[in-house]
Write a structure and sequence with these properties.
126 residues; alpha+beta; 2,3-Dihydroxybiphenyl 1,2-Dioxygenase, domain 1; 9-stranded mixed sheet; 2 helices; globular
Length: 126
């Protein structure tokens, strides 16, 4: 069962809702096929060609996003995505706790935590 989102003092809500598997282009197809067959989950392509989603069964607390990285020199990694109902407020809260904004996209913001680990805040409803 999926836990409820956290409600912060200003009334905004957020929660970790997705793990994003980051894959360099030369291993993307093989890794995606491996994880799809290992989990048995359906695969859904997204509008952005660098993303695909593995669809877990209902009731699992986290979704899986798979991202094709642009740089072949990158290593396989993963990061968390947080859903929130006010991305600007949530970003400001994270920055106030020591995070750093790396990039702002139309639907998500990439940040790093105080030691440099990347993660994202998205516009998805928590």
């Amino acid at each position: 069962m999926r836990p409820r989102p956290a409600t912060w003092p200003d009334g905004t809500r957020s929660q970790v809702d997705q793990v994003c598997l980051d894959l360099p282009p030369q291993v993307y197809d093989a890794e995606l096929a491996f994880w799809q067959h290992l989990t048995g989950w359906d695969l859904r392509s997204l509008e952005e060609p660098e993303f695909a989603r593995l669809l877990p069964p209902d009731g699992l607390p986290l979704r899986w996003l798979v991202q094709r990285l642009a740089d072949p020199g990158d290593q396989v990694s993963a990061h968390l995505d947080l859903a929130c109902d006010d991305r600007d407020a949530e970003t400001a809260r994270h920055v106030g706790l020591g995070a750093r904004v790396v990039r702002v996209h139309d639907d998500w913001t990439v940040l790093t935590d105080p030691v440099g680990t990347p993660y994202c805040i998205t516009d998805r409803a928590p």
